[in-house]
Design goal:
The chain has 21 helices and no strands. It is mainly alpha-helical and 411 residues long.
Length: 411
Amino acid sequence: RKRSRAPPARDALRRPETMSLRRPPPDGIAPHEYNSKKKRKVAEIHQALSSDPIDVAALRRMAISEGGLLTDEIRCKVWPKLLNVKTDDLPPAPGKELREDNEDYQQVLLDVRRSLRRFPPGMPDEQREGLQEELIDIILQVLQRNPQLHYYQGYHDIVVTFLLVVGERLATALVEKLSTHHLRDFMDPTMDNTKHILNYLMPIIDQVNPELHDFMQSAEVGTIFALSWLITWFGHVLADFRHVVRLYDFFLACHPLMPIYFAAVIVLYREQEVLDCECDMASVHHLLSQIPQDLPYETLISRAGDLFVQFPPSELAREAVQQRAERTAASTFKDFELASAQQRPDTVLRQRFRDRLRVEERTKSILTKPRTNRFVKLAMMGLTVALGAAALAVVKSALEWAPKFELQIFP
């Protein structure tokens, strides 16, 4: 089978806005101060990379903190460290037999052909077609090497992000590690574990905003609107590649359940829009399915980190009704961390609260106690908002699974 290949010069294939440090500074920040902070962060990242051993905890902090890892060149160096992938031992190039008699090939081919909007606008057809062929090979090679994994529609949205940032060979290694850890629940033969992860969404919302939670429960909207967010790490629903890779920085540095916390903060951010809706499933589902493209991403990332610290998965598991916990990625994450010799992501996030240890401990004792009435919920709502603002200031320093998706979750 003759296939066109992408030219080796990968710089021409990346989106230029993700590569330059000379982006407009946020409102109210002088350009020289903004650039100075970026240069300091780059220096800190390179220092962590050159440490012996590599300071993975520092790299995690850099990936979580404002701006993430800044450029694709830096991501090429840091993402492998976050996933404990050795860049000198990459999977071999795929052979001609990879696509022969592969049960997933036709579905992968169809999905990849529909992925035009995931490539930089204006890219020559020859380059895009070559990248699509590489995308198919990456997916099939990971599945061939890991027969316990099952392909799902939307998986290609994650893989294409890695392909565009790091290239085919390294992307194959990173995606393979990601698929056997963070994404493993989505790649089970059934949707049971995916539905379990979605079950965390409403308890998080209930902890912060009981009024919004009760409204959504009354509307019987469920959580299916967030499915495509979760299983593509928002790659399918966000149009700006900068925002996608920024979220990938954050998710790669954190616990596997962090994407569901981020989904929750998006819903919480849109509280008034939701409450202004008709209280019925169709209206609320339609609103939440249309994700805004102008979200305050840094604020929401910080907020998701705060909520993970205040309401860790262990505190929410009872409400989420965890099923077959031994098969979920969250339950095996500690083993993954130990193998990577990396500190726990929630520990990284907690470092942001060290300067306010006494206040945080006092607040935490309130926030994690079982709530017995609605007044406690409302009081806590104000506390979490205050903590989110404080944490942001600190961070600134540094249904069943349908294979054909008849529900049209992916338009």
